[in-house]
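<derive_structure_tokens>
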Amino acid sequence: MRKIFLLLMMMCFCTGARAQNDSENDIVIQYCLVMYNVRDEAILLDMHSDKRYFIVDENGKNIVFNSSIDLLNYFGERGWEYIELFSDRKMQGTMPCYLLRKKGRKGDDWMDGIKTKSLY
């Protein structure tokens, strides 16, 4: 009896069921680079396109965060996940750069909840 029970338990653990639907193939990951521009006291957003954006509030003014944790919480509340922190030394001093990612489906609005103003 014990052997039968053990055999049934092993079968339950080894057997996995996976339902596949068409939408699983639509999941994509979008990466974004968030930089704190000390000179302009602004947050720059690089979505790997030809443009960079400032993050602004409803009135079009640059959002200033009290700390890097506030910045990460702001993006985290909008579905972005922290990946890595590094420094960009192109400008005087160093510019903290946060690499973030967001999982979603093709056609999703990646910037949902984030207002931007084009830098150029």
Remarks:
- The two ends are 75 Å apart (CA to CA).
- The mean pLDDT is 75.
